[in-house]
Write a structure and sequence with these properties.
3 strands, mainly alpha
Length: about 130
């Protein structure tokens, strides 16, 4: 599971007038990042897996967790841990070390976070200035 959190601070954000706008921004921003991560993970799976059937790729999805957080996972797939390389049946039990796609995707998303929240930020600025 990959988790993203967006934090806001400062006096301007602690006002009852801003709360609905900030809540909307936080939900949009975190889901935009998670949706982008899901798309990139699915694309990488097609290119990386040796025998890609689409079954696991179809279970990878983004979903909101709580205020300011969302997740990307492949829940419901019993072999997801093994494919990622963090299962109990990975090396040294088997020779398969795992693909570590979620780990690699987290690093890519962190590097491009500003680009992925640009749309939510633009929408937030438009709502504030309305």
């Amino acid at each position: 599971m990959t988790t993203f959190e967006v934090e806001y601070k400062g006096p301007v954000f602690h006002s009852s007038e801003w709360d609905p706008l900030m809540r909307n921004f936080m939900e949009n921003a975190t889901m935009d990042v998670a949706d982008q991560g899901t798309k990139e993970l699915r694309t990488t799976m097609v290119a990386t897996f040796k025998h890609e059937t689409g079954r696991y790729r179809g279970t990878v999805k983004a979903s909101p967790l709580s205020f300011g957080a969302s997740k990307i996972d492949g829940e419901g797939t019993v072999y997801a841990w093994w494919l990622e390389g963090i299962g109990s049946r990975n090396a040294p039990v088997t020779r398969f070390p795992g693909y570590h796609l979620f780990l690699k995707e987290t690093a890519k998303l962190n590097r491009g976070i500003l680009k992925y929240v640009e749309n939510a930020t633009r929408q937030f600025v438009n709502e504030v200035n309305a």
